[in-house]
Specification:
Two copies of one chain form a homodimer.
Chain A: H1 4-11, H2 15-23, H3 30-43, H4 49-56, E1 61-66, H5 72-87, E2 91-96, H6 101-108, E3 118-121, E4 141-144, E5 156-159, H7 161-174, E6 180-184, H8 190-205, E7 215-217, H9 222-233, E8 241-244, H10 247-259, E9 269-274, E10 287-290, H11 293-308, E11 317-320, E12 323-325
Parallel strand pairs in A: 1-2, 1-3, 3-4, 4-5, 5-11, 6-7, 6-8, 8-9, 9-10
Antiparallel strand pairs in A: 10-12
Helix pairs in contact in A: 1-2, 1-3, 2-3, 5-11, 7-8, 9-10
Chain A binds a DNA duplex (30 and 30 nucleotides) through helix 2 and helix 4.
DNA sequence: AACCTGACTGTAATCGATTACATATAGTCA
DNA sequence: TGACTATATGTAATCGATTACAGTCAGGTT
């Protein structure tokens, strides 16, 4: 590797001058600048990133903790993160945690070893290990979608899940539905509680009691949707509308419902969350809640970099707008509840 | 930040001893080790990653260049990359290029600045800029799926696209199809040529002439499938089978065909490539070529690390097995070509 | 002529580690 | 006891940059 020393010798100047030529050319006379640039070219010199980082104490990298990479919704967020980071001169270290706490800890500890300047968490767990917890002072951390558990208050970019769930429920109620099934994703998260609370609040207003037996599921997977429908259809009074907590679940639900010989939306209406790319091309196209995933990723980076630069945060919670996309997987109840 | 100096003072030893305690404890007496560990704990010391990297000359990071993140097939590969990297003590820098050459150059130059030790390319372009090209000696680079263009021969982990395309075509021929449409992805790639050649070879053997007007498309997107079908259906003799070069295209094709009031597979058979997660849950479930994406990612990392460690490569081209998944989007021709 | 200023460049300290080399101490053996 | 060895630790050089500080020199001012 060619280093700054070689270049300085080649140009017949000191290393300081080389460094200045590259970092702050105005400090160097045009003649010297020229000499140095020639030497740089000739030697094919590129400053060693690690050396610069040691000196400046900044890595210009951020870690992104993501439970898995197969969920297209996460990828939209990460796309936003990546592009905003790139624009601001940061690079993104990908931390696929597979939901494992120890992997989270490992990645989170990158902040403590100066390997990364900040962390974006897409899951809801406190990312640091118990051993590290007392060291994390106010390390730059932002969460997207989920609020981070624990005492420390980290800024969060999220959706108004309560309102979104209310909107979905209202939409279905307006079609005359009164019997609802819910296929949930990860149960232990704030999102889950908010959405469920949103649904129940509307039902309460309509005087409908939500039967807890109508709540199934437990992870954001297609298979959860398939199994969820199987369970719901064995109930004495199957629901006429099924609210799925993401589009993958909804895709599984569509599949299972049709497999049972029932039609969507004539027999059962189905809704999702996220508006993944394929949602609009399902048969029928999926009614779902659009989340500005890309934008959420971008905002997360902006807020994170604010923290990194020790700028005061204007607020610790940012709620981005959703929109309910009414497609063809929802429709009027055809046969009224025989109950 | 607590550094090694502080810890050494706290423990009453030299920095060398602290470093040895953490890196090679056998060199240190049990008593001193104990003292140091206590000091490390108390100070909450974590070695500065950047400093270690400067000294060792290794970053233990790899860059992954990916044209976009929304393609779930890429994400399966990256998942494999990420996990293999993690196991081997490497971390992954995500380089979303959006197909832009300058972004590729920027990310690729991380190898020249010691920011990363190796690079995995998921696209087909030579990732370095012209300026850098003479510097890249034998920097560790591996490509997955696509062969990298240019003179330099980089190892590649790929699928036997020719054979896979032949298998798909044979499958359709066995159902009696004789009139084929093809909706292609990125035209300028090796994959494209291999697959097209595979299809044509089978057709030639069957004495079928491939009508070049039946080749449409140009990018790996759902919309390409939708538009592709629209074009193909305006042909004087619409095809009875459509081969799509990835599942996203196929999903768009299914959607468009049904929108035209035709049935799959009764009127038109459709096939994809990749076997993305949703493929099995389409209506009808998609016949597609399964690629071992996760495994390809893992292998790429292994081969890359071999290069990083300057171990000789046993071979520069590795072809992983595909399997044709026959689902319900393909079936016998119902109405024989009226031709 | 003496002094000052500003532009440019070099010397050397520094970032936070690792490690070659030197040194000290205790233990072993003839 | 003296020589030798092994073990443990410290000193200081080193990785490849950045930058505070100091020095040089030309030109301008009084």
């Amino acid at each position: 590797m060619t280093n700054i020393k070689k270049v300085s010798e080649l140009a017949g100047v000191s290393t300081a001058t080389v460094s200045r030529t590259l970092k702050d050319p105005d400090l160097v006379s045009p003649q010297t600048r020229e000499k140095v640039m020639v030497a740089v070219q000739q030697a094919g010199y590129r400053p060693n990133w690690m050396a610069t980082s040691v000196k400046t104490g900044k890595s210009n990298s951020i870690v992104v903790l993501v439970p898995n990479l197969v969920n297209p919704f996460f990828m939209r967020i990460i796309e936003g993160i990546e592009q905003a980071a790139q624009e601001k001169g940061y690079s993104v270290l990908l931390g696929d945690t597979q939901g494992s706490a120890s992997r989270e800890h490992e990645y989170a500890s990158m902040l403590l070893t100066n390997r990364a300047d900040g962390l974006i968490q897409l899951d809801h767990s406190f990312p640091f290990s118990q051993d590290d917890a007392h060291l994390v002072g106010n390390l730059p951390v932002v969460s997207v979608c989920e609020r981070i558990e624990g005492d420390k208050k980290y800024p969060v970019i999220e959706l108004d899940n309560y309102a979104a769930a209310r909107a979905v429920t209202h939409h279905l109620i307006s079609y005359g539905h009164r019997s609802f099934g819910v296929i949930a994703g990860q149960i232990s998260s704030q999102i889950h509680h908010d959405r469920l609370a949103g649904i129940k609040s509307v039902l309460a207003e309509e005087g409908i009691v939500f039967d807890e037996a109508m709540l199934v599921g437990g992870s954001y997977k297609i298979e959860t949707g398939v199994e969820g429908v199987q369970q719901l259809l064995t109930r004495a009074q199957p629901p006429t509308a099924i609210i799925c907590f993401n589009d993958d679940i909804a895709i599984g639900a569509l599949y299972a419902i049709k497999k049972h010989g029932l039609r969507v939306p004539q027999d059962i209406s189905v809704t999702g969350f996220d508006n993944v790319r394929v949602a609009a091309y399902m048969d029928p196209p999926l009614t779902t809640v659009d989340q500005p995933a890309y934008q959420m990723g971008r905002r997360a980076v902006e807020v994170l970099i604010q923290q990194i630069n020790r700028q005061p945060l204007t607020r610790t919670r940012e709620i981005l707008p959703f929109s309910l996309l009414e497609r063809q997987s929802t429709g009027p109840v055809s046969k009224p509840n025989q109950h």
